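Supplementary Methods, section 5.1.

A reviewer requested that the exact input to the structure prediction be made available. We therefore reproduce it here, unchanged from the version used in the analyses.
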Amino acid sequence: MIAQVSAEVHDNLVELLSQDVFEQRTNPLAIFRQATRPITEVLKKLGSPAVTRDEFDERSFPDDVYGLSPATWVDIDEAMVEPGIEWGAWKAATVMMRKKNQ
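The structure derived from this sequence is encoded cell-by-cell as follows.
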C-alpha cells in the first residue's frame, strides 16, 4: 500500500505542477493529506482505535481519526517547509501578475 500511495502522490504532484496556475484546483500539501486516506481505511478495517486529537485537528481534518494528516509542511519533513512556501509564493505572485496584466 505504501508503494501504491507513494506512486499516487508522485503522479498527483507531477500533474499539479505541470498545470497552468489557473488550472490548479488543489495544492501540494493537500495531495499529501489525501494520501493518508487509504492508510486510515486499513486501520479502521483492522479495528484500530482512534487517537485523541486536539480541537484544531478535529475541526480541520474530521476524517483523520488517526492523526495522520499533515497540518503543515514540517509535519512531513522540515526540508519541505521552504519549497512549500516557495510554491505558495510563486502561485500567488503569478496569479496577481496575470490579473494585473489582463
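DSSP finds five helices and no strands in the chain. These observations are discussed further in the main text.
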